[in-house]
Design brief:
Elements: E1 29-34, H1 40-53, E2 62-66, H2 72-79, E3 86-90, H3 93-96, H4 104-116, H5 125-136, E4 149-152, E5 158-159, H6 167-173, E6 178-180, E7 183-185, H7 194-204, H8 215-219, H9 225-230, E8 237-239, E9 244-247, H10 248-251, H11 254-266, H12 268-271, H13 276-287, E10 293-295, E11 301-303, E12 306-308, H14 336-343
Parallel strand pairs: 1-2, 1-4, 2-3, 6-10
Antiparallel strand pairs: 4-9, 5-11, 6-9, 7-8, 11-12
Helix pairs in contact: 5-13, 7-11
The structure holds guanosine-5'-diphosphate and manganese (II) ion.
The site of manganese (II) ion has 3 residues, from loops.
């Protein structure tokens, strides 16, 4: 594993893409933030960092989503940090509400068991709603109807490095679908039936499996076989989705839509605690060409408690190569080597 060093393709720094070239055409893209009014204080430093390191050169619009209206203070203080346009969008009830086929009794019962198994947040219904929205709803919001690429940002995350090229243009010009930053193992207890449901779906739709898929990565049991056992076949290794730079055309494809609807009906967003990270990762691993998935190793990033920290003079505030700040046992949660084993670091 070598998370260190400059990006491999100096070509994307050619004049055409240079940040100071006013003629460089902008891509159809937005910075995308699902956030609560109460999280404003945690969001401002994050926004300031991303503006300073990157977006003041490109001025991509920000789009904020919430299931309740944003306050005037929220709007004022976020817009104050950027020259770019800020959009404040309300999530429609039918995108956020727990679906009516979910039984409340069964939800209460099953989350009790999840809690006994130490699955974080399982009794918090809004957390389940958030995971479902991030899995299968956000890209259907009318405000994103004409938008193709997004960069997902959360309050409290940190960005450490100057980024002097247009990452959205990189995605488009290199025909990439999905960009990730950190790869982690998940808690198998949060997704016991996700892989079995996936296998059922695949049996009904073998045509969706891409010929250059990452199935071997999804089922790799070499490093932590106990995870595959508890998750019934899935290694739980996933792209950590609090960071995503991606093309919504993939989520809007028939394959993904059918897959999401299958999972949604199966109920695991509520009866278990399926995260959008394993759902996105499994779908990408099965239905997409692995060569369209890109590791943004040059974007220094932290979401507590993990880091991606390049060794570059463009970065400050993290230690080159560091993955965690706290207890060393966190190191074993890193599963990027699994990905590189099959796909490489390009
Ligand atoms: P974690 O990263 O898994 O610990 O989950 P977070 O608490 O960071 O939530 C993920 C993202 O969803 C963050 O951007 C939160 O601000 C946002 N979020 C989570 N729950 C809600 C909610 O109920 N309403 C809104 N509007 N945003 C939420
Ligand atoms: Mn978070």
């Amino acid at each position: 594993l070598d998370p260190i060093g400059e990006p491999p393709e100096p070509l994307w720094r050619a004049d055409k893409y240079a940040a100071d070239n006013p003629d460089s055409p902008r891509i159809n893209a937005t910075l995308l933030v699902l956030v609560r009014n109460e999280e404003l204080k945690d969001l401002l430093p994050t926004m300031r960092q991303l503006e300073e390191h990157w977006n003041h050169k490109f001025n991509y619009p920000w789009t904020f989503f919430n299931e309740v209206p944003f306050t005037d203070e929220f709007k004022r203080r976020t817009q104050d940090l950027t020259k770019a346009k800020c959009n404040y969008e309300l999530i429609p009830k039918e995108h956020w509400a727990t679906p009516d086929w979910i039984s409340h009794e069964l939800y209460e019962e099953s989350t009790k068991i999840l809690t006994e198994n130490d699955v974080q947040y399982s009794t918090k219904e809004s957390y389940h709603q958030m995971c479902r929205w991030n899995s299968g709803m956000f890209y259907h919001h009318p405000a994103l109807k004409d938008t193709r690429y997004y960069w997902r940002v959360e309050p409290k995350v940190q960005f450490f490095c100057d980024i002097d090229y247009d990452v959205f243009r990189y995605m488009q010009d290199h025909n990439k679908t999905y960009g990730f930053n950190i790869n982690l193992y998940d808690a198998p207890e949060s997704i016991p039936s996700l892989w079995p449901e996936t296998i059922k779906f695949l049996a009904a739709h073998p045509e969706y499996l891409h010929e250059n898929n990452a199935m071997k990565w999804l089922v790799d049991s070499e490093a932590r076989p106990e995870h595959n056992e508890k998750a019934h076949g899935y290694s739980t290794c996933h792209f950590w989705s609090n960071f995503e730079i991606a093309d919504m055309e993939f989520w809007r494809s028939k394959a993904y839509e059918d897959y999401f609807n299958h999972l949604d009906r199966a109920g695991g967003f509520f009866y278990e605690r399926w995260g959008d990270a394993p759902v996105h990762s499994i779908a990408l691993g099965l239905f997409e060409d692995v060569s369209k998935i890109h590791w943004f190793k040059d974007i220094g990033y932290n979401h507590i408690p993990y880091y991606n920290c390049p060794n570059s003079p463009k970065c400050r505030g993290c230690k080159p190569g560091q993955f965690y700040a706290g207890e060393p046992w966190l190191q074993r949660e890193d599963c990027r080597p699994n990905w590189f084993k099959y796909v490489g670091t390009g």
